[in-house]
Amino acid sequence: MVYPGANHTRFEHALGAVHLMRSAIGILKLKGQEITDEESDAVTIAILLHDIGHGPFSHALESTIVQGVPHERISLLLMEQLNKEFGGKLELAIRIFTDQYHKHFLHQLVSSQLDMDRLDYLSRDSFFSGVSEGVVGAERIIKMLNVRNDELVVEYKGIYSVENFLIARRLMYWQVYLHKTVLSAEYLLINVLTRARELSAKGSELFATPALKAFLSHQVTLDDFTFNRPVDGRPTLDLFVSLDDNDIIASIKEWQSHPDAVLSYLSRSIINRRLYKIKISKKPIPEQKIALIKEKICSHFRVCDDMMHYFLIADTISNSAYNQIPNDKINVLFKNNKISDIADASDINLSVFSETVRKYFICYPKELDIK
Amino acid sequence: MVYPGANHTRFEHALGAVHLMRSAIGILKLKGQEITDEESDAVTIAILLHDIGHGPFSHALESTIVQGVPHERISLLLMEQLNKEFGGKLELAIRIFTDQYHKHFLHQLVSSQLDMDRLDYLSRDSFFSGVSEGVVGAERIIKMLNVRNDELVVEYKGIYSVENFLIARRLMYWQVYLHKTVLSAEYLLINVLTRARELSAKGSELFATPALKAFLSHQVTLDDFTFNRPVDGRPTLDLFVSLDDNDIIASIKEWQSHPDAVLSYLSRSIINRRLYKIKISKKPIPEQKIALIKEKICSHFRVCDDMMHYFLIADTISNSAYNQIPNDKINVLFKNNKISDIADASDINLSVFSETVRKYFICYPKELDIK
Amino acid sequence: MVYPGANHTRFEHALGAVHLMRSAIGILKLKGQEITDEESDAVTIAILLHDIGHGPFSHALESTIVQGVPHERISLLLMEQLNKEFGGKLELAIRIFTDQYHKHFLHQLVSSQLDMDRLDYLSRDSFFSGVSEGVVGAERIIKMLNVRNDELVVEYKGIYSVENFLIARRLMYWQVYLHKTVLSAEYLLINVLTRARELSAKGSELFATPALKAFLSHQVTLDDFTFNRPVDGRPTLDLFVSLDDNDIIASIKEWQSHPDAVLSYLSRSIINRRLYKIKISKKPIPEQKIALIKEKICSHFRVCDDMMHYFLIADTISNSAYNQIPNDKINVLFKNNKISDIADASDINLSVFSETVRKYFICYPKELDIK
Amino acid sequence: MVYPGANHTRFEHALGAVHLMRSAIGILKLKGQEITDEESDAVTIAILLHDIGHGPFSHALESTIVQGVPHERISLLLMEQLNKEFGGKLELAIRIFTDQYHKHFLHQLVSSQLDMDRLDYLSRDSFFSGVSEGVVGAERIIKMLNVRNDELVVEYKGIYSVENFLIARRLMYWQVYLHKTVLSAEYLLINVLTRARELSAKGSELFATPALKAFLSHQVTLDDFTFNRPVDGRPTLDLFVSLDDNDIIASIKEWQSHPDAVLSYLSRSIINRRLYKIKISKKPIPEQKIALIKEKICSHFRVCDDMMHYFLIADTISNSAYNQIPNDKINVLFKNNKISDIADASDINLSVFSETVRKYFICYPKELDIK
Q1: pLDDT at A280
Q2: Pseudo-torsion of CA D240, D241, D247, D249, nearest 10°?
Q3: Interface contact flag, C352 A352, Cβ < 8 Å
Q4: Are D102 and D76 in contact (CB under 8 A)?
Q5: Are residues C253 and D207, on separate chains, in Cβ contact within 8 Å?
Q6: What does the pLDDT look like over C177-210, one tens digit per residue?
Q7: Best of D167, D178, D340, D359 to disrupt the B interface by mutation (most B CBs within 10 Å)?
Q8: Residue of chain D whose Cα is closest to the Cα of B283
Q9: C10-59+68-178+329-356 adopts what CATH topology?
Q10: Best CATH choice for the domain A10-167+324-356 from the list 1.10.530.10, 3.20.20.100, 1.10.3210.10, 3.90.199.10
Q11: C-chain residues within 8 Å CB-CB of D235?
Q12: Sign of the C-alpha dihedral, residues C348, C353, C355, C359?
């Protein structure tokens, strides 16, 4: 919707993260860390599958048709299913993924503030979006990795690369992942799916691919996933993995001509890329501004009160460049073997990077004449 | 299916071709060719829209559900429709596209052996597939363009770049576009759609998105497109442009569980990437080998005679690096203002490049035990 | 000496800065800033020639054979000489370069914290050294440039790119420009030239190319440059521009076998890349450590007191990511037309970036056995 | 002189070739070829040092001051010297380099039509010159390497990459290595050195760095190298390795003001990049044209007869894309284990590539008014 070249997929990302993991394992072994072949395979499997529980349009779906079911849980359920199929061969990968293995640093390679996941997606997204400043020195950071007291650390020579990584990540968040047009499209998609489900619950006739139809007409819960209960006759997990972007888009395309005015309006908006106008602000949006927009929506679309949320979206976004969480710090290893949090290790005071920046936004149809 | 990074789209290609067209226009004007602003806009529109008539999985569709309707014709029909919408503003673009404008070289920029289409797609496909040898010096070739006697020519300093372009194009054809796995997947897709249509004609119940359903249940002709006749209540062109990859894939996914054994087998093969084994040969495949495979298919799948063509695919592919066609040659301009066909202009005898290379292939299910 | 791929030259840098200048002028004109063709040419000439006064191994020479003559002054003198040759055609370029032209923002394009010089050299040095994190979004920053109250400003959408630029610049300083091996080599070179000059002053016989010999045997002053006084029969400026890396290296190569033990030791060290060991520290080097090293040098090399400075180098290096100087700030332009210093405009408190970071270092021969 | 970015060095090339060699060894071992660690080290040393005998401006020097001493011989002599220094550790490397080791394919990795030398320099030169069409798929070709009957072969899947390699190499020769401005500069350099030596032989006073002076004033022979005889008191090999670009350029700079009119004219031409005009032709340059130019040189420069060759250069250049030499073919390995020469293995008739293309050229000063 924003960067025409950004057509890369989770599949490529998974392969890329595996590639980085192999480099990281090689480097750590060269530095004398003991990593057995079994551990090496397991941590590689863990990174390969870490995102497997994402549905199509991941975050939009998590807010709608699989509400309350975090993708990490689905990843785990799928790994467990694969583990059965492969006769227990994913046992160790699962323990590393869930941080139940005694070598904690292996988990950190899969999930931490310097994990192979982030190093890959930042490089990849900056490459395909053309946002060249988002480049992180993934290769260099990996070369600087080491392990002390079972914790992943970065050697002090890599400090500047880590600083750059944090600032590049910050830039990618505000400029790409939370790009205003991206936000507007994502919230519109959430609204489309919410409306479709609402209509479905009311018994309205609605075209959808069979897999999507199942999720629209049933409120699937975490338990349904965990016990793989059948929905419309098919086990929940099977149904979920059969769902992809094609189901969502093919269905929304049809909804453009649905008799429900709200659903068809929203669907046409997204398919024809007539996205809502979005205003982002460092301060909360003033109440009177919101009241004014509501009034205009009410008079223009004849849609008031309970339908209002389909036309006026108001929410906040936030991000911090670095999370100074006790158990997930970026540790720097000095020549004298001392270890410090990156925020303290840098020449400059990086505590500013761990502040959470929050922004407020509203979205509404472009037709409304609002300044 | 083959190159995980090759997720680029026709949209990006159209933008890229426009970018090259602008460079080419700039260069030609610098060299003294008169190109008015109107002509410049028109030739840019022509290249922007040159591929607009392609349906999803272009070549597979052209062999099945829109058989006998070349995509160039649909491109033209869509341009004409846009021309009406925009009050005649595409008039000149259409004349250039159809080579009815007196400045023939403008048409050649859109469609010839050195057009902006080829220069873009070769560069783009080599970049995203990672086949680095496919790189063509598009920028350099464009810098060497000129016009003589209303024909596009390449200045002699660009000869080596053109030679390299021809060889790179040859490589891209045999190594990427006609890659054996690509062929196998494409013919499987053709078979899926053929079977779906066959079942549809027999009145079999079949899930499909509404747009695809219309094409499956009607044999739409060129006349239907030309007169934009309604199919299932919607004008043919509207129906066609509403069709995209999502319709095809979402439908095939469902067909995996269709009661028809052939359709479900083919659909599962493609969705799970269990493609047919393919053998390519410079010589025709021996009759007895084909007979043997038929026999195995008959005994293994209990599918003989009239269904055989779904399981055994036999066809030829061909390509020539350079087509020495009288009206579409690559002309080289020498310092003394003489012009020669590239095949004669080169230091080495390039006539070999204009030979058509033909290869024969067969595809059949991997389950068959054939050496 | 450190990055084998970093063989790029000032000539390429000058061309690159011209390229960026052209983009910047184009963008500013598109945004409605009036820049005449004459001004456009002048600012382009100014950036082309901004570095022309650098001698070979610029900073090492400025500390030795042209001590007290800043390269900016030589650049200006050469521009003035060219101005005479070209009949006054560089008049405006010189006024812009010296900030005497009423359009101050043109000077800022040549020399400020976001000038085309920095944008080019950071991109170029990060590319050729392979320090990928040093990449700055030069193109994007240029697209965000504008002018308000005759001051160059960056539109607020470019804030993240500027933050990244500051952090990338910081990284390039500490990791590349002030790389420990670079420092060690640079100070060794200074010592070689200092010793050669000292010997020359004492009347010692010394091979040198004629141009270098002139500078070794005369203490050339700023006045000698300004009035272009003859040295060894040739005008100072002519002599200076005839000097390049070849003179320095060809001479040092010969000094390896010079009878003076200090000169030959230093020359062999640099030519054979047996650089001094270097220790960098955030705190001043303790006195007793320095005393210890001196003692060892004295006993090992039989070189004490007045020659000591050739074997023990102690100095400081410093850099700040962003200089909050009143007249040279990076200004951000907001949508409401307000302007703020980047340090205040960012979501996060960037004042930390303007702190000067200082480090202390010592260098001494590797032969000494010091921990 | 032509491509401002092409400042890369032999050192980088040597490192790059080592890098490719390591890949090739890894691939061949993966495919089951036995290569011991000792062999692996030796072949890597051989490629690292294969070019070590090149002097500065290699080909120009080989035609002048070290005439009759091929650089391959000097490489070998230096390897032998290093072998003594390292106590025989280069024994095997030398046997591989000189093709005296029983595993012939190891020699082919160092020196053949698909050696690591060519794969590296073509990639490198196309990258740094910006001639993007010169890119060869080095990685892919290496992946396709194998060994049969102790001969290096390319698996049939790599045919298109090899074709592309041959065409790219052809392009690089004619467009970069034999670029007309490169030729003109190279022959001018040969003339400068020839004249300097001639003057030196006549006893004329001439500035030169000591190393260059030794070669100018003595006609050093292959025997002098082989027996490392002293020249001006230093062994020939030591003297030769101490010579680099700096000696040549620093000396030519001084020769600009030499009293000999020919030497100073040639030197100024090269230093100020006022190169001779060059005309290249597929046919021999007509005698009367040459006569005419001679006449003009004679009247304009007052230089006739025996000095003429400094002002009028006439020679030929030639290259063939592929040399069909019995002992150095590019062999293609088919699936059925048959092996063919690439010229026969390709779909198209590549014999045309093995034709030698020859061109004729003349160079003369730009001041002459010749059409």
Answers
A1: 94
A2: 100
A3: yes
A4: no
A5: no
A6: 999 999 999 999 999 999 999 999 999 999 999 9
A7: D167
A8: D347
A9: Hypothetical protein af1432 (1.10.3210)
A10: 1.10.3210.10
A11: none
A12: positive
